[in-house]
Amino acid sequence: MKKLLGALVLMLSSSLACAAEGGFPLEHAPDRINNLVALQNGARLFVNYCLNCHSASSMRYNRLKDIGLTDVQIRDNLLFTGEKVGDLMTIAMAPKDAKAWFGAAPPDLSVIARAKSSHAGTGADYIYTYLRAYYRDTSKATGWNNLVFPNVGMPHVLWERQGPRELTTTTYHPAHAEAPAEGAKPAAGHGKAWEKVTTVYDVNGIATSKTEALTGYMGGERVETRFTSKDPVRTAAFDNDVGDLVAFMSYIAEPAQRERTRLGVWVLLFLAIFAVIAWRLNAVFWKDIK
């Protein structure tokens, strides 16, 4: 039995280690699930930028009253095409048409903040990093690429809010070996001759590369990325908006989580008090029994 448990633990740890080696590292999303102002701003951004192509068919507009909005505010600010406050957050675009236009139907976002959870981070971390990892790339059909999701089919719908910026990627790999894909973490290599390839994607998505030979390099294969914003104030405001949007998407993935957390504190407190009472009652009951 011990050998079986040991083997299971080894297999699990090995699989997690292998999985952790791939993919772009996720940044931690700000925790704003209890910030009503952030959730309301996130709802506005979601309806204006996401709900055109993506639905949230498990969520009703009137549930937004839980984040402090009234029926009048919902109707005047979040409903634009004749929906009712009690309607589901769906879209008019048919999945068949979406597949014909985009190659695949945009996924429903009702529980995306839970579906994207993994060993690398929460679903909120994934969405937060993904929305901030877009860069211009003229080699792609949409003109955009993404470090978290290379060759993504969705364009950067929030680009006007983020402002222009450049991406610089620096790849270290053995000479004459194919460089790894953008956003992927390469495996370790042992080539004798190494080179560094620096690629800059300017604000228009035009890439320029420079290759340098490395002497005595012992660092292994790796990819470094760096964004340079041309409007830092605008970019900071965009990052704040993305944090609000992610908070709202986390909320719709489980609208009852705020209430669940609040009740959980009282339940744990009750159990703690009950445990003390039960412990003392047990002592009184058995004190005369030997």
Features:
about 290 residues; alpha+beta; 8 strands; flat; disordered N terminus
What does this structure look like?
With 290 residues, the chain is α+β, with helices and mostly antiparallel strands. The chain has helices at 2-21, 36-50, 71-78, 95-102, 112-115, 123-131, 159-162, 232-253, 257-286, and strands at residues 56-60, 88-89, 134-136, 144-146, 165-174, 194-201, 207-214, 222-229. The strands form three sheets. Strands 7-6-5-8 form a four-stranded antiparallel sheet, with no helix packed on it. The chain has a two-stranded antiparallel sheet with strand order 1-2. Strands 3-4 form a two-stranded antiparallel sheet. Strand 6 (194-201) and strand 7 (207-214) form a beta hairpin.
Helical residues, percent: 40-55%
Radius of gyration: 25 Å
Determine the N-to-C terminus distance: 38 Å
**Number of H/I helices:** 9
Mean pLDDT score, rounded?
A: 86
Low-confidence stretches: 1-22
Question: How can the largest sheet be summarized?
Answer: 4 strands, antiparallel
- Can you tell me the overall shape? flat
Class computed from helices, strands and strand pairing? alpha+beta
Strand order of the largest sheet: 7-6-5-8
String of helices and strands? HHEHEHHHEEHEEEEHH
How many strand units?
8
Q: Strand-residue fraction? A: 15-25%
